[in-house]
Specification:
The chain contains ten helices and eleven strands. By secondary structure, it is an alpha/beta fold. The strands form four sheets. Strands 2, 3, 4, 8 and 9 form a five-stranded parallel beta sheet that branches. A two-stranded antiparallel ribbon has the order 1-6. A two-stranded parallel ribbon has the order 5-7. The longest helix has 24 residues. The chain is globular, with a radius of gyration of 21 Å.
């Protein structure tokens, strides 16, 4: 019977080594970028750059073009999204709104208005978990439920195209799964502490935070709960356009990287958009 004990010990050691290796091989990262001076584009960790390139994600656009990709994270409604949409409509500027399950299920009229006025609705997951901490099946549900609800609400059967990982956490597994599910990962190259509704500092503060770090190709992350952002937005857009910037959509950013969407239905029943390399002409 001694040999059976040795076998069990060997199996246990193997499992420990395997599980330890698995965790070490796929660590969890927190998205960050390194701001540059004089409105030059920022950088990020070289390893992050390689992962985004491998799995078709973005955090900024080409540095040689004065384009800006305006995005908002919408976890809940604080009364300012309608003001933001009014400004965008007046200025004829496209934006992307990354929404949670709470937002899309509670704010259907605002979601429909976003779509009707030509904006992009993005996927910020249903419950806003850290995706590296959930199982493959849970990750599929978190993204799939947003997609299904969006399609049922708007009638847009192409579904959502872009995912912003909740909390900015990711690893190689989650980036790979997002791509396999037919979505494109979008991080950001500009953000500031604007989400704390009890510490708003006024429109001038928001304006100067944005203007001192804006750069060619910026994927700008703002939070729609911020009164500062809503009050500063028209001035920001006007002054940036006067400085030669153009506001572009995420679809235009994806097109610059030779990625084109087409309808695709994943095996568990959601609609999405699988991105493939465009043919060379």
């Amino acid at each position: 019977m001694l040999w059976k004990a040795f076998i069990m010990i060997g199996i246990s050691l193997f499992l420990v080594m395997f599980l330890t290796y698995d965790v070490a091989a796929d660590p969890v990262y927190n998205w960050n970028f390194k701001p540059a001076e004089n409105n030059e584009p920022p950088t990020t960790e070289p390893h992050y750059e390689k992962l985004l390139e491998k799995y078709g994600g973005f955090y900024k656009g080409p540095a040689n073009e004065k384009n800006i990709y305006l995005t908002f994270d919408n976890g809940y409604e604080n009364g300012y999204t309608e003001d933001v949409l009014d400004v965008l409509k007046e200025k004829n500027v496209p934006a992307a709104f990354f929404v949670t399950g709470h937002y899309i299920s509670e704010e259907g009229e605002l979601i429909q208005r976003m779509v009707d006025e030509g904006h992009t609705v993005g996927n910020h997951s249903w419950h806003h978990p850290s995706l590296p901490e959930v199982s493959d099946e849970r990750l599929k549900r978190e993204l799939g439920e947003i997609d299904e609800y969006y399609q049922d609400l708007t009638g847009d059967k192409e579904g959502v195209k872009y995912v912003r990982p909740p909390r900015g956490t990711f690893n190689e597994r989650t980036l790979r799964m997002i791509e396999e599910l037919g979505y494109t990962t979008i991080f950001w190259s500009f953000a500031y502490v604007d989400w704390n509704i009890d510490r708003q500092k006024g429109a001038d503060y928001a304006y100067h935070q944005i203007m001192r770090r804006v750069h060619p190709g910026a994927v700008m992350l703002l939070h729609s709960v911020s009164s500062d952002n809503a009050e500063a937005l028209e001035r920001v857009i006007t002054d940036l356009e006067n400085d030669g910037y153009t506001f572009r959509s995420l679809d235009e950013l994806a097109a610059k990287e030779d990625l084109v969407p087409f309808p695709f239905n994943w095996k568990f029943g959601i609609g999405g958009n699988l991105f493939v390399a465009a043919p060379t002409t």
